[in-house]
Amino acid sequence: MSEINPNDLKTIRSDFLDTQRFRVTQNAVMKNGIKKAITNERAIENSSFNFSVDVDSNKVMNQKHSGRCWMFSGLNFVRFLIEKKHNLKDMELSPDYLFFYDKLERGNYFYNNIVKTAAKPLSDREVMFLLATPQEDGGDWPLLTNLIEKYGLVPNELMPETTPAWNTTEINQMYNRKLDKDAMKLRDLVNSNASDTKIKSVIRQLNQENYRVLSICFGTPPEKFTYEYRDKNKKYHTTGEVTPLEFYKKFADINLDDYVELMNLPGGGYKYNQTYGIELCNNVVGGRNIRYLNVPMHDMRRMVIDQLKDDEPVWFACDVLQEWNNPAGLLSLKVYDWKRSFGISLGKDKATRVQYRESMPTHAMLICGVDLHDNEPTKWKVQNSWGDKPGHKGYFIMDNSWMDQYTYNTVVNKKYLTDTERAAYEKAEINLPYWTAMLSD
Predict the structure, then answer these.
(1) Model confidence over 277-310: pLDDT tens digits?
(2) Residues contacting 394, CB < 8 A, separation 6+
(3) What is the Cα 151 distance to its own chain's centre?
(4) Both ends of the chain: CA-CA distance in Å?
(5) Greatest CA separation found in the chain?
(6) CA–CA separation, 275 vs 295, rounded Å?
(7) By the 8 A CB rule, do 354 and 265 touch?
(8) Residue 286, CB half-sphere, CA atoms under 13 Å: how many?
(9) Nearest to residue 262, comparing CAs of 386, 407, 133?
(10) Residues 6 or more apart in contact with residue 381 via CB below 8 angstroms
(11) What is the mean pLDDT of the chain?
């Protein structure tokens, strides 16, 4: 081990005090904070909010203090297709409805994995992983499709947001405590050689308790409803009485099987044109698992642009916490001047950042447009789910270099894949371990 030498500190201190630009930065940062003090205003001024391909300009939603970005952005995608089909504007689908069932299903998924691993000691890495966070808010595209295909959709006004959905700290703390307690009960049953019938009966009872808890917090999901609306031409329409699943199948008329999730992770042992899955990363027992096709960034951009040109937005996951300016709504490698202000460089190459846990998918949004110059993208229009105050009424600008470095996943219609890419997607996936950094929040 190498300790800090006090004599070295004298030299270091003297060097710092003698460097005027660092003293200027010090004064600005101490008074205003880091990012505000070192913001590159020119980068913001040069980011015009205009795009040659502009698909979606609906009002943004607000996930507030919850980790439901994957769900909000996915519902915004589905909403866009519904609006296009039925000539609607600013329709909203209920995140609260799907959140209820996501929490319920994750509890059941947790119980099944606890039973499966009950013979292992509590010190086992997999058991520790399960017990550390029995369930959480974060998710991915396949988890959303699992919920929609099983439970359907409802308009937002039929199951609006509640306070526990807007701020999930309390429900997550309470719910995880309950699930951990339930895990002890299930492990004891398995290890005392209880019958499968008994274990399944106990799980049904625990799920009944969870339904009650979630109903108290989020409201009780409707079984049937009638949706009445007027289109852009003020013409009245009604669906008649439908179930949420009928509403999804008849009103939305979207085949979610047509969409595949792409991944861009160069190097680090990850091969292009290879599919990858992640262990223990599901929400519905029997539901589809995460499945990524790893492709070069230029191929990912090609497919995203093709879908935008066909008037469809694109769901994507990125590391929004890197090089972003929230007030300006700008995702850019130039937005902060770390080198001039602090004398340091931040960041590594993309694969190394993931390996060292410096970066990983932390947020999902919707790409709604792109600015093309000589048929090459320079910046992208992004619909966020943080309300209409940040950026351009809730929309962000993502420059192309930022997209290359910090976008990890996109979801596109499989018709945009080449024959080679489609064949690669159909091959058996390589399962990544459950502790992989590719798990998004």
Answers:
(1) 999 999 999 999 999 999 999 999 999 999 999 9
(2) 59, 60, 329, 383, 384, 385, 386, 387, 388
(3) 20
(4) 36
(5) 81
(6) 9
(7) yes
(8) 3
(9) 407
(10) 49, 51, 54, 55, 367, 368, 369, 370, 371, 395, 396, 397, 398
(11) 95
Tell me the C-alpha distance between 138 and 174, whole Å.
Answer: 17
Active site positions, annotated: 69, 363, 384
Query: Cα 231–237–243 angle (5° rounding)?
Result: 115
pTM of the predicted protein model: 0.95
CA nearest to 369, candidates 92, 90, 57:
57
How far is the C-alpha of 49 from the C-alpha of 382, rounded, in Å? 11
Q: Are 275 and 293 in contact (CB under 8 A)?
A: yes
The first and second tokens of residue 168, run together, are: 């999930």
Residue-wise DSSP of 90-147: S--B-HHHHHHHHHHHHHHHHHHHHHHTTTS-TTSHHHHHHHH-S--S---HHHHHHH
What is the CA 418 to chain-centroid distance, rounded? 26
